[in-house]
Amino acid sequence: MPVEVGLWRVDSGKPQRMNSTGIELEKQLEALIEQDPAILGYPLLIIGRQVPTKTGGTIDLLGMDEEGNLHVLELKRGRTPREVVAQALDYGSWVSGLTHEDIKTLYEACKHTVPFETAFSETFDTSPPEELNSSHTLTIIAHDADAATERIVTYLSTFDVPINVAFFRYFTDDGRKYLARTWLVSETTITAQTSSAKKTRERWNGQDWYVSFGVDNTGIRVWDDARRYGFVSAGGGVWYSKTLRKLPVGGRVFVHIPQSGYVGVGTVTRQAQPFAEAIVDVNGQEQRLRDLDLQGTYVHTTDKDEDITEYVVAVEWDNTRPQADAFWAAGLFANQNSACPMRSSFTIDTLTKNFQLDT
Asked: How confident is the model at residue 145 (pLDDT cuts 50, 70, 90)?
């Protein structure tokens, strides 16, 4: 039986059904969703409206959720069940192959006023994940649907095809306008298909690295030491030090202090060494780091059963700044690992300008 959405006004204890119309709604719904995708029940960043595909179609609305997954939103527009479902599936097959670069290109083609990374951060209050489009969802948007449409969509969702129908009804009452929404299939039963073969991350240039320089009130690690003597460090457990130890000589590092921002850019000059053995270059002279005038201790005293050694990587700085002047902007990349490849071209470009680096 087709799903029906109703709305009743209660006056003096008596329910009075309100009349709905699909005519005005059909004209406005696409614009309303673009303006506020949350009316679907969850926040989305709209990548574009009327997005052309390479298969010759045009997606009404293409959105992205906080996990970086894509959402194809297709209005029924009076088409037959076979037409609208086939169209949604066709768009899904195309969307499933979009790479990180493809998605950013589509976003930019829609002439948004801010970069993709900034828009993502403003929408979800977090930076974009490294990997985009690991899954996708197809949503048919309709005023109503016949039994055939509901039967086909329900059948497909039973076999884990990520497709659903969002029903909207437009009501008017006493000069006011209302919008009601319900779903054909419970959202908890929709499983988004994932393709492990897709390349959804930005390409890495093989040179740039992100480094997290953890600073807290323990005094183990102090940024002023790292600026003065040219190094970065991490430790307190294998999980913390293992990624830092992968930094190669010649790699460029962008150093970030959690909860503060980016504070330095430089080039790795020596492979990682335990703090007790670490050598740094000070005014052209090789010196053992532990013999220098340091504010931090760089020694961990807990978890004796684990390799908790603080590891040090020598760096020749291009530019640094005090922690109090750390730079941060919406959309910049950040990660909990001590070090990882820096793939975000937006972050690299933004920091290159902010730190006045020679490109």
From this structure: confident
Terminal-to-terminal C-alpha distance of the chain: 63
- For the residues 270-280, what does the mean pLDDT come to? 94
Domain spanning 208-353: which CATH class is it, in words?
alpha beta
Other Cβ atoms closer than 10 A to 161: 19
Q: Using alpha carbons only, how large is the chain's radius of gyration in Å? A: 27
Here the tokens at position 350 are: 């933004």
Nearest residue to 89 via CA among 65, 39, 55 = 55
Smallest CA-to-CA distance from 204 within 143, 251, 262 is with: 251
- Rounded alpha-carbon distances, angstroms, from residue 221 to 7, 224, 275: 61, 9, 11
The per-residue pLDDT for 22 is 63
Residue type at position 6 = G
Crossing angle of helices 116-124/100-109, nearest 10°? 90
Angstrom distance (rounded) from CA 48 to CA 60: 8
pLDDT in the model for residue 177: 82
Q: What is the mean pLDDT of the chain?
A: 88
The residues spanned by each domain of the chain are: 8-189, 208-353
Give the model confidence (pLDDT) of 79-115 as tens digits. 777 888 999 999 999 999 999 999 999 999 998 889 9
Is residue 213 within 8 A of residue 232, CB to CB? The reply is: yes
CB-based contact 241:273 (threshold 8 Å): no
- 67 three-class SS: coil
Backbone angles phi, psi at 25, to 5 degrees: -60, -45
In tens, the pLDDT along 128-141 reads 988 899 999 999 99
Q: Which fold is adopted by the domain 8-189?
A: Trna Endonuclease; Chain: A, domain 1 (3.40.1350)
